[in-house]
């Protein structure tokens, strides 16, 4: 019986933070021949700790069926500009974040495929049986998670191939959502980071303010963490009971004093594009500097 030939994957940035996650997931996968591309001393040391050897970039690109760009957003476009012209026609190029793709950082080449995928991370509403699952906040090590995928350009059959690789990178995967690159940029950065992280850090600030004003830290943390759970459950319709009338009233009081009236303009296409451009540039525009 003939075995299915292995897919040759070139992993660029293999020794970085995301690269190591991909390396850990795919290095023993029976369906892949992995080629690890890394030049930094720290990254090379990370690969040695994992018992894998780096391959030169040019050698890997000559034979790769698919190339995974596990690189920081601020350099991904530059590196893509160097490597994409060297690829064979029909090569699948995978990015693990929509920022560079949506910002127009990927070089034009119609005879290759661009595929973008990103993890949703373990749901706060999921129930995990073991402590390792509960402690896996990022996902893809012990805890299950959903993923989002987009075929930016290329033949339809490459979507299935890219999604299969993404499922292996982020496994265990519960479900995969097919969306567009533009929709992925709405999810991240706009929804999850521009708004989500800002709001989460604001919660940390108000906890610290309560402590600064004399509330014992353990009492403040217990109170905050418990209320976050019940408020998320009510706010996202996961429980049958509503907020009390007093809670709804004072929440509106808070909204009027905390939020700008036009804050949802962050989701306008021009704003989402500006956000991904900020990420790939690596600094805030002068108009938003404090």
Structure notes:
By secondary structure, this protein is α/β, with parallel strands linked by helices. Helix content is 48%, strand content 14%. It has a seven-stranded mixed sheet with strand order 2-1-3-4-5-6-7, sandwiched between helices. Helix 8 packs across helix 11.
Give a quick set of tags describing it.
globular; Rossmann fold; 290 residues; 2 domains; seven-stranded mixed β-sheet
Distance between the termini: 66 Å
* Strand runs, count: 7
In the predicted model, the low-confidence regions spanning at least 5 consecutive residues are: none
Instruction: Tell me the number of structural domains.
Output: 2
Q: What average pLDDT do the residues reach? A: 95
Estimate the global geometry from the Cα principal axes: globular
CATH superfamily of the largest domain: NAD(P)-binding Rossmann-like Domain
CATH topology of the largest domain, what is it called?
Rossmann fold
User: SSE order, as H and E?
Assistant: EHEHHEHEHEHEHEHHHH
User: Based on helices, strands and strand pairing, what is the structural class?
Assistant: alpha/beta
Question: Assembly state here?
Answer: single chain
- Report the total helices: 11
Radius of gyration: 22 Å
Q: How is the largest sheet built, in terms of strand order?
A: 2-1-3-4-5-6-7
Task: Output the CATH class name of the largest domain.
Answer: Alpha Beta
Helix content: 40-55%
**Major beta sheet summary:** 7 strands, mixed
């Amino acid at each position: 019986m003939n075995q299915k030939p292995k897919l040759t994957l070139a992993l660029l940035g293999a020794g970085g933070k995301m690269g190591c996650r991909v390396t850990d997931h795919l290095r023993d996968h029976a369906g892949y021949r992995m080629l690890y591309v890394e030049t930094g001393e720290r990254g090379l040391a990370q690969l040695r700790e994992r018992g894998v050897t780096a391959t030169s970039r040019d050698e890997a690109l000559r034979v790769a069926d698919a190339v995974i760009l596990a690189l920081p957003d601020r350099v991904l476009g530059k590196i893509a500009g160097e490597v994409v012209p060297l690829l064979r026609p029909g090569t699948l190029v995978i990015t693990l974040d929509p920022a560079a793709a949506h910002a127009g950082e990927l070089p034009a080449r119609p005879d290759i495929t661009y595929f973008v995928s990103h993890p949703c991370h373990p749901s706060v509403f999921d129930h995990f049986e073991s402590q390792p699952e509960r402690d896996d906040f990022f996902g893809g090590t012990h805890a299950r998670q959903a993923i989002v995928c987009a075929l930016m350009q290329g033949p339809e059959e490459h979507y299935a191939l890219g999604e299969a690789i993404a499922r292996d990178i982020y496994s265990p995967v519960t479900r995969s959502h097919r969306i567009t690159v533009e929709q992925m940029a709405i999810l991240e950065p706009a929804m999850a980071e521009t708004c989500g992280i800002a709001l989460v850090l604001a919660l940390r600030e108000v906890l610290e303010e309560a402590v600064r004003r004399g509330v014992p830290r353990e009492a403040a943390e217990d109170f905050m963490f418990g209320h976050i759970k019940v408020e998320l459950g009510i706010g996202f319709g996961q429980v049958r009971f509503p907020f009390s009338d007093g809670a709804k009233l004072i929440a509106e009081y808070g909204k009027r004093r905390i939020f700008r009236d036009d804050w949802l303009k962050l989701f306008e296409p021009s704003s989402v594009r500006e956000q991904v451009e900020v990420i790939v540039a690596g600094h805030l525009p002068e108009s938003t500097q404090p």
